[in-house]
User: Fold these one by one.
Assistant:
Number 1:
Amino acid sequence: MSQELASAPSHRRLWPDMGLVGLAGLLVFGLAYFNLSEISTRHVTAPLWPANAILIAVMSRLRPGRWALTLGLGLAAMVAASLLRGTAMPLALTLPLANVVDALLCVAGLRWAGTLPPDLRRLKDAGAFLVFGGLAAPLAAGLIAATARQLTGSGHFLQNLFDWWAARGLGTLVFTPALLALTPARLVRLITPRRRWWALGLATALAVFLAAVFLQTRYPALFTIMPLLMLITFYLGLTGGALAILATTLAALYATLRGLGPFSLVRGDAAAQMTFLQVFLLFGVVTVVAVAVLVEREQRSQRERMRLRDELIESERRFRAWADNASDVVAYSGLDGAFLYLSPSVERLLGYTPAELVGQSIEAIIHPDDLRAATRAIRARVSAPRESERPPVVYRVITKTGALLWVEARPELLLDPESGEPAGVSDIVSDITARREIAASLSAAKEAAEAATRAKTDFLANMSHEIRTPLTAILGFSSLLENLDTLSEEARRYVRRIVAGGRVLLSVVNDILDFSKLEAGQVHLDPAPFDPQEFVRSTAELIAPQIESKGLSFALALSPGLPSSLIGDSTRLRQILLNLLNNAVKFTAKGGVTLSADYDPGSGELRLVVADTGTGIPSDKLDQLFERFSQVDGSISRHYGGTGLGLAICKSLLDLMAGRIMVASEVGRGTRFEVHVPAPQEQAAAPRIGLPPLAAPAQEEPGGDAPAADPTPAEEGGAAPVRILVVDDVAENRELVRLLLDFMGHEVEEAAGGEEACRLAQAERFDLILMDMQMPRVDGLAASRRIRASGGPNAATPILAFTANVLGEQVEQCLAAGMNDHISKPILADELTAKVRQWMSPAAGAEAAAPGD
Amino acid sequence: MDRRAPSPLVLLVDDDELIGELLVLALSGAGYEVERARDGVQALKWLTGRQPQLMILDLGLPLLDGLSVLAALQQRRAIRGPATADFPILVLSARQSTEDARRAMALGAARHMVKPFEVPRLLAVVSELLDAQASAPGCDGPKARG
């Protein structure tokens, strides 16, 4: 990563790079020349070789593509310096080559470790730098150099190796950090206002100490330098430390070469002094780097702490702002349920301040009746996974003033961020009292509206019934009158008007009733098989007279693809189609009406199209066409009549059938209605359900196709006449029951009271006893008990009670008294025959024998 | 209209005087002999002794409603044999209720019509039912054409 950062800009900046390389070459030449002249004159090898550090520092900043150039230039500079210094040829080439190898290995090693350029404040970088720059690379270079010298016969191999290694390693360690630090950006950091005086003071102190230590030879005060280096590194960072070590190195070298300073006190030759100096510098470098690493670590962790603190403060501030201003109450409680925090809004809600409630639990505020359920709900909610559907918990709370409020709580389990263990519960509580009140009043209003709709529909149904009967008379007598031979033509015309008016009135009544029922959801479809061709033809026939009388043409287009049998409510479908046809005829003055029918087997839809050449409908009115009481123009109802409910009824019916109605129209050109209604084809094997169309003649006596509500008619197996005792104190009731049973063919005996019934039951056997409940003296219950207890011929005869009250209690009394069943009053032949049949079946006898089981 | 000799006897069961009168007029005008019953009990009493060629039955009757009359007739046929109530029944109702119609048909009615009816249409239906009855073989209960 680091080499990418370093190489990316250098790739673009060719000339600055070249400048850097050239500078490095010049410096290397100068340093090599100086090293060779000043140092090598007195020692076999130089104690410190900074030229390699220059190459390393420069290569650290360049991408690897430029290394070859840098190394080549460095090699040339060093060879030139060697030659100028009069070094013999093989060595003048091999020793610079060894130096170049040192620089290359160091940079390559750092790159391999991913630490190029090295940031020595990091432990990893510093370690890699020490290993490659101070150890491996110089050792390798030393091997080359020592071998070369060995071959030329100059000096001891191991001594040469050590000297080389120490000089190159130390040169790299001492100079590279300083050179890397010598960038404008880093130097500027030393003179920031905060550090400026420190930097100046410490630099001065270092100068004073260095002078004091190295410009005298009496007192070896070398130890004073180390703490100063640490102090400088501590306050001024690695940059300051690197510069300080550089200054110390130069001062020590200068002094030692001139026979001054503590190293001059070392006993032994110059080489020994130099070795000691090298050791000192090595420790200096290690100390500076170690302190830099520590300081950096400390600073980084402090920066991290600061950042965390800032984040924490910010999030706390945000949370407070939210919690303190929320209208909902935010609460935290511990695992024991005691509140640890409540937002100030709790006072608005409950009248208690947060302080009053902290330490208390929900029990302090919840309505006692809701405590158990709420606790259970809270537990269920917090233990359910967060992604699951978790309803909020609703309960009542009691405010400080004693008022009752409904609240909705959304408790969540708080987990300890470290251990992941439950640590408490957070909760957001909102006041839903008003919402509940609105909901309650809404649902009450809805119920009231529905009840009103039902009442209206029932009323309309009754009214319609009441209107139909006299209307029947009006239309019927008019029709008789119309056909009277003696009627004058004028009178006949008037009668026709009456008939027409009556018919309109009838259709109005029908429309209103239909719509009202549709609105109340009381219309139920009655799907049955029908022949679509027959259906369309017969419907068209109904409209034919009107079409004829208006002199319009009529075209019927039946698709050959129409199936022979479909399932649908043909009565309601006919109503829709008639409505559309009626409209078409009504609004068409000349031209004609077309009716076409088609079937789409893909969607299973019957498609009916009614098109006319009438007045048409303006496009802006098409939308409201299917709304109730809408006619395109108010004047139309005056001109054409009608309630305006027709299309609304069609639409509602089609909605019920899951069908659609579409309209296209052009004013003056005509209108086209298209109806799509799902109508599955009848499966050949499927049994016929429901009734045949009402207009068709009835089928055979109903057998298997009777509705489920009706018991199987008796014709099936034939029924036998039975002897029945009818007990009722009211003569009319007896008479009615007797008439019915007689008429059916049963044999009937009558008893006018409980006593008479018991007497008759004791005397002869009956197949069935029908007994009224309420009778004077001995009532139905008592009589039944007596008959059961008597052990007479009817002890096991089924006894059915007549009762006006079919509610549970009385029925239970009947059963307890030994009766078997009941028949409701007023008596309906339907139920009577069904019950008689039921109890006269062979299985019923056994049941009756063990009454009141 | 098909003239029969003697005139077919129609039992008309309807409690409404206006409609009763209307139907009596219309039916007798068409050549039928008409007897009237004004409630279900009267109808059953009338039917106990004899049979009409056809019965027109209103469903909304006092004392015993039309469906009960149908049920009683059905039970009578079951117990006493089909011949004891062997005539077609045309049911009239003022309610546009498919449920009423369904039950009436299940109880043996031959046809259901909703009031108000068109007199000519009613007469046509009556004639049709009588024709069907006449062409039906024997006494096999009220017969309808499939």
Number 2:
Amino acid sequence: MSRFRINPVKVTFYVIAAIFLILLPYYVSQYTVTTFIRIIYFGFLSLSMGFLIGQGGMISLTQTAFFGLSGYIIGIFGVERGLMFPWPDLMAIGAVAIMAFLFGMIAMGTHRIVFLMITLAFGQVCWAFAAQNTTILRGWSGIRGIRPFVIYGINFNEYQNFYWASLILFALGIFILWRISKSPFGLALNGIRENPRRMAAIGYPVYWIRVVAFLIAAVYAGLGGILAAYNTGIIMPTTIQLSRTIWVLLTVILGGASFFFGPIVGTFVAVWLDVLISGVTERYNLVLGVVFLIIVLFSPTGIIGIFDQMRNDKKFNSIINFFSPKKEKPNS
Amino acid sequence: MKKPDQPHALTITAVSKNFSGVQAVRSVSFEVPVGERRALIGPNGAGKTTLFNTIAGELVPNEGSIHFFGIDITRKSVQKRANLDLGRTYQISQLFLDLTVEENLYLAGSGGATKAFRFFGPWKNNKAELDWVQEVTNQVGLHKYISSKVSELSHGLQRQLEIGMALAMHPRLIMLDEPAAGLSPSERIILTDLIKKLPRDVTLILIEHDMEIVLDIADRITVMYHGSVIAEGTPGEIRSNVEVKKVYLGSSYV
């Protein structure tokens, strides 16, 4: 018996969603497409934090620093030194990986609240450095004029092209991270989340597994940072300030930290909420806070948790089962 | 049982451990031959668990040395000892509560310094490892619960899984820390049966307060009191040992 079953309802849903996303620039405004680009780059960041929280039980407040670091590398080497694609981008990912590895070596010996504090401290050091360094990082004003490139005749300054490029990168990123979370490595990370002491006692190098997980997550934050820098054209200290980190943490919990797609759903909702209410009121944080409270109150496992509860609900299940073929029960 | 050229499964030489002045273990020495089932008994505070933790690697002894199949493991980390096939269970279950029985046993069965660094193929496709998990679940009587979450299992079933976790590691030595803690009399019978059915070539060290279980399982018994070993012998010898009676019943009874 094959362990993976194909669920036609799910496949149909994914195909429709993919077609909808690919054709998006043909039937919506530039503003809407740009909003989707925002969802994608914040999605990368949120996925980075959500992977560490959901799979590894590590609440890291450093991810935004990696997001900003890759933006600054793009700014310094792409704009000020004038290097061509793909050099600034590769350097950005390389810098993020090195930084994450070094910092991971320091932080991964700690757990829980100490880990939270040390990652908070590191994030704040990066932010303070960016704000105070005027010679390279240009202080509060940041580095401006970051433009996407023309590669093989495709001009990524056109928002449609940039959107498709981002979408492909995001889909690829999601697929790879999803595979990782189902792999023996992902399972080992889950074990560390549940009980690091037992993991050591059954022979796992707990420390190194955490370091590698941190490295993987940092690269995702870095990819988001590259897209963000190109899309906004500017990188400055406010990009990596603490309120941004908290916002990302909020999107992760809003969507459902224990679900793989939770962070993406959370980002989608939080960004659209921003767009929809910005015409009505400037108190975005207040509205987001209230929405967050209501959702977490009714479903501590976030938005996806609501659907998950529905799936376990008998009445709802009978409707779903009507549309999908009978599932085989695992042999008992 | 022991061939002359084969080292003992476990050799403990003059191990002492103190916690800021309190001498928990005083110069304890003993040997456990390969394949033996050894029980470690003694009243509360005798230093059994401390000694146990120095063998498992969670504590480093102040003095003395511990050899595992001839290898000095006195200062090796918990993980390194596990990689040498030393398996243990805990007095208070240390399971992955949010994972299924299958996932728990899969993790225990595929530990090691490098095996976790496989990033792409789903773990559910590794047939050899899953077959082993199936075999272990049958051995510890959990085949009905293979896809249940551990947090949904009863305490008794969790204790069975504790032993399964150690067994799944392909261990040469299993250390059981009060395996029957908190079990009802009927659950104790199931668990004792399960321990007795463990493969005979695996060496076993057992801490247990329930004397019925100890006398049923153990080939030899080591008795500790106030951090020292006061007696060692077969269950029959220990039963008639005057020192041991004194410790357990008080001197007025002897």
Number 3:
Amino acid sequence: MRQFRTYLGTAVLLLIWFAGVQTRGETPLPFFSDAELAIQYRERCAYVIDQIVENTDPNDFTRGSMFNIAANLHSGTNIEWARKRIVAANEPPTGAMFWMHPMVLLMETGRGVLNEKDWAFIHELWRTYFPYRGDTENHWIMYYASIYLAAEMRPDAGREQWYNGKTSAENMAEAKEYISDWIRITTSYGQGEYDSPNYIEEYTRPMALLAGWAQDPEVRQQGKMMMDYILLDYVVESLDGLYGGAHSRLYPRYLLQPSLTAGAAHGWLFFNQGEYRANSGNTLIALSGYEPPPILFRIAHGRANQGYVQRELKRTRWRLRNAGPDAFEIDEKSTTPVYKYSYVHPDYILGSSQGGLLQPIQQQTWSLIWSEKNAQGKTNTMFGLQPFSSPLEGTMYFASDWDTVTNLIARSKVDYDSPDKLEGGSPYEHVVQDESTLIALYDIPEGTRFPLINTLFSRDLKHRIEDYSGWIFGQGGPVYVAYRPLAPGEWREVDWTGLLKSGAGAWFSTNFEKLAEGSQCFVSKSLKNGYIVEVAPVSDFESYESFQAAIRALQFEFSLDPIPSVAFTNLSGKMLFANYGEPLSVNGKAVDYTQWKLFDGPYSYAERESQSLEIKFGQERYFLDFKNLRIESTILPAE
Amino acid sequence: MKILAYYFIAFSTFAAFNAQVGAMEETRLFAALAMTKAQESSPIPTDSGVFIYNGNTDTWERTGPVIQSVGSITTDPSNPDVVFLACGNGIVRSRDGGQTWRMTSGWRESDFTKIAIDPVDGNNVYATSVWGMSVSRDGGDTWARANRGLAERYSRTVIVDSRNPKRLLLGTADGIYQSNNRAKSWQVVRSSPRLTILRIARSESNPDLWIAGTEGEGVFLSKDDGKSWSKTAPELGNANIYAVAMDSSDESRLAVAGWGTGVWISIDGGASWIDRGAGLPSKNVTAMIYDPNQSNRLWVSTFEEGTLYSDNEGKDWHDGGLKGAYVFDLGVVSIK
């Protein structure tokens, strides 16, 4: 309870500070020293661990994850329960890399606590359980970070002591090489599973493990630097802890409620944004001792009142075949550039990628999120998609056969082959954006499995008006939204097939009926199609009516044949011209994707293939040099 | 202890065979599979691995480690104690008849589909994967990529020419490729269809006769030792063919099958084809082989609806087990 009171005290201080921030410069910004930020962060870490310990029932050996066991081992509490639970939780071991990394966490926190018998049991698991390495980037990095640390704890273990018949030295060498290569590719060409509000923790978990426990100083430094890197990537596109913009992967319930994501949970732990929510990634990180550099907190909280553009270069997952004309190769594997563009405003984030099949199954090509005083329970988001599903996509990214791949995908991602799904890329979608204006165009061939487009209008987009002008207006929190469909459509409830409400989606659609209730989709079945989204802060207008009038007055022309195209002058007075399949033209100048940087925004900069990242806030500069595993913290001259 | 005992049994199946049959060498049927039918709300099959058919007990018995995503298995023709698994994780090898196993490939190799060994020099091992061809020159100790000349690396199947072990035929996403220098370089076989080759088989009774199943263009046949290929079985013109088989004792007897096709059989060397899918629980076939130990017996694996066999050219089908399995490869291995 003492720690909780301390935590509450800090929270009150921060709330007072937030109030200052949210009045937009009217109150002088308070300043937290690096030491104060570190203390506050450690208190939140302690709270995470305390919560788990408090909720452990030492008499119930049937409940408690390996993360929970680790928290108790770390705290020196419920040790007998932990010992028995280790055995019960591993009869038999399952989950491959999702077993490996919490097992390593448990082992690291169990040093000096577990007895010989416990270790013998654990070592036998590593000898006999042969984990699958997986088929995604997050699987591999979890696998190799885990085997690295497990082997490092037993450096002299021979071949006969490991499931794969390799010695500890061989396992460590292989893992170290993969980890270094993953870092090289990520910091050169962008992350393959980029900016996922769900999967961010599948990267922070292994990196925090390395940062916390790797004995090799190079590997430890790699873990710490990649933690910094991933968190910067998140913080420059986050809004009160919610991850905005285009995403590589998102599950249905998290699409509808951004505050439920692991990204949001990280926002609370690292930057005290949003509310505390139990999260395994946070547990691991809290135990690891990793501490974020203070500059990230300052970016999260001290961003300018003006909006800014954040451009980022990412890449698709590796493509096995059907790689397409835009593909390039890295070490004999094909991938395609992903051009991310986000407009980050104090009240909202509108962000997009170019469209196409950039990620299998769960891509979110564009999204809008807006600020809410309390985002818990809110569907403070909007997005659109063509619900594409095809073996073409499946076989592009997975080793399965053409005729079974869709079926097998839908065994776990059950909505993949459903017309009302809320996530996924489409080869027939083309999205462009300039600051608060987004234009999406669709050219869907005859015979496409689900020949329609869906746009979410959430229950928290209030005061919806279908205007005589053809625009649809709404207000989400402090943001006005105007949506102009280019073809007729109809309103349908979210999940109009009922697939997810029925519980078929298991954990990732738990409570979906409640989450989706009151929200609707605008569904249009025209094959040549598109829409414009124009967003503006409420504070820019005298009234809702004046916003509507301003939108109606905008110059706007479009045609759908032979290909969809739009000419639109937005609220900023910029003349935008979008033609399906071509770069956006802004005031007569085409956007040049060849110049896209790995990171390009007011708080971050990285050139393609640089293996570095410059983080800036005011005069503070924090530089990550991955080639030399060097962190440089400097103060720039005052402007 | 129950689990440990289970693993012990799993790791020791090959060894058990050795003990049973002494130093004798025999050919056994294998199935590399994943149990997917009961896989619900999960990306993980309920079971997977390689299973060996025991004709005495009419059961399938696991061999090798319990490991997700095993595409195929093979043994060294010159030393059946050397066993290779082509896995999602990489190449897993045993050198003691299955008593112990070791993953010999590293992080650069993954997602293997098929593996073949030089019948003369067991140091040369060839493995196909969705990332291309990997080769070992030291019996599987180390691996390197061997994709020189390939337009598309995605590969599903490879066969070493038993008459000329320097020569290999490889099924890629760009047709059939040939190497005449032990996979140092590849050239496309010009008459092969330029699309994904899913399966290739060669007749043991007439080594000039080859057959290939494609993704989207049905079946192709070569009667001149893989030099030229022409379409056969016009009834399966646009089918995805996941299974091709040639009877080792009778060159005129061929079988092909794929998705939605059931089984088609030819008894005249591919000149004509008969639909023998009636009686199968599913027309979706993923693997097939003529049993070298039982004349005229054809084994067929359907997608999740079991493996069946016929002793009368597909007129009648009998339950062969493996219900619920997605069989990736059905073949034979030599066991000492």
Number 4:
Amino acid sequence: MAELQKILHVDDDDDIRIIAKMALEVVGNLNVEQCSSGMDALEIAPQYKPDLFLLDVMMPVMGGEETWQKLRNIPGMENVPAIFMTAKAQDAATGALIELGAIAVITKPFDPMELCSQIRSAWDRHQNSG
Amino acid sequence: MLQSIRRNQIAIGVLMLAIGVAFGIYSLGFGSVLVAAETWSFYSGQLPIGTAALLGLLLGSLVLALTRRGKIAKLQSLVMDKQAREIYFQDRALNAHAIVSITDPDSKILSVNDNFLKTFEYERDEIIGQTHELIHPSPYSGAVSVFNDIFEAVKQNKVWSGEHKAITKTGKTLFMQCTVVPLHDEDGNHVKNVSMRTDVTETRLAEADRYLTSMLDKLQDEVYIYNTDDLRISYMNETALNRCEWTLKLARTKRITHTASNFEEGLFRKHVEPLFNGEKESVVIETLHDKGFVEINTRLYVGPDDVPVFVSVLRDITERKEVDRARMESVSVVSHELRTPLTSIKGALRLLQSGAAGVLEPGAAAIVDVADRNSERLLKVVNDILDFEKIRAGKMDINKRPVKLSDFIMDATTMNKGYGDEHQVKFVATGIENDAFVSGDSDRLMQVISNLMSNAVKYSPKNGTVVVNLKDTGRKWRISVSDNGPGIPESARASMFDSFVQSDPVDGIIRKGTGLGLPIAKEIVERHAGKIDFESTVGEGSTFYFELPKIESPELENPKDRAQLAAE
């Protein structure tokens, strides 16, 4: 079973990026690369080669869903799983993201002390289901 | 000479007799001929012919007078008979047709016909001696009663005629066409009143029906009436006919399934099921129709021929949907704008608390706790308002999956332990059974139990215990949360689940909260076909509970389900 090491985090909010970075690196001991937009993510992803995408849903210009669809079109990125983070608490939207293939949807505000274990358990579940 | 005189006498006598006979025949017919003939044979030998003739004439006249009188009497009696018969028949006809009552001048009822008794549902001895006030409904305040109106008219020797409402002994309302005639004796004294009424209720109802039907036709909503068995249409209002481009005649050859291209009879039958077992009086569905969003409200009625019918009212809600959508959109944006900074604030505080950003001095840690608690509170308010808006817009989604209640209650006590610790209140779970399952949205149900648990904590005394109990009530599982708080007075029961209401506490201490927790919990429980309620004794404590329908322990064949359950 592949181990989760590298996460590409995309969020347009600077402060949330700071909190998430600390939660994943300091608390979760993961390797994190961050971008403030979907366009940046498309540039960085092929070089960084993350194990998982952590994407904010509501971003200007290119939203989380669209960013993921474009990321999946990059050769070698087709099977990289995605977890979405959203501050929009609409149940239907969450369901739709799972339908699209997201392995988890984490609602904001998230608990930085729990973020890593939430991500890891979704990762493990995904690895087990093949 | 004598001979000639005698011959003359005979001639005159014969002539007289002939005239008499003629009269006799005229007046008496065959009988007087016989009398005349006998008179003639009797007297012809002894009396002089002139005398006999005179006698004949006299007799004839007598017979004539006698028979004329007899004839007049006979004629008179015939006419009288006819009149009596006519009156009798008129009376019978009137009695059969009308409701007749006769009163004295003070309106005391002297006699009534059978129709009166039948119509107003009284026995004869119940009504005799009463006044007509009995059948007149009490007038609206300020209005002159019809009873008084009639009373005044007949007092002034006027005939009263008009329509009035009447009530029967059992309280049925009828419409009466009525004429009241005052009767006077030869000296002009008012002695009686005769009232004749006709029941025109049917006519009035038919008129009202026509009126209602024409109003139904002009309604903006579409109205359909159709048979429950074969769904055959018996009525569609104009609005409905116009949309389908049918005539009423054509519509009566169609079934309700023909009124929409996406009508699914199986789904419809399932939808109306609660109408038959008395669970609901009406069922409502929102659906995308051929021409946009519609809301369809269906009821079950028993028609005039004891035939059960569905009545569906279809309302175009495209505009309302648009408003709802725009509203939800703005709520969603506001929610996003509030949650995003809250994410950073809460995240930062949690990291500070945990020491991930460096260990804090005890004084600083206490201040960070205050900030964390209040950011949590702010988040709760935002979430409650958002949920409340979702409920109002009908947008709260309930995603049901099997929920194992033992795990659910354990998770709830774990989740709320922090809040309990803060208030020095502990949770105890009792009655836990392993084989207890319901079908529900575990996140939403967690919201319900957390609300009840945090309320219980809020109202518990220091070092108190909140008991979470699971109980089998037959077809449902009851989850209750009990505290030893001040209790809730009965007067607060009615508004307990109303929005933005926080009842005045018996102990005078105001607790923090939005006043939305219980109404949201109620909505969630009801969306699970369950019920929520409470029992309380002032000074002893309160027990809030919710009940959810049982399901069999689920076979988790579907790995997706298993993954979901594991995630929960």
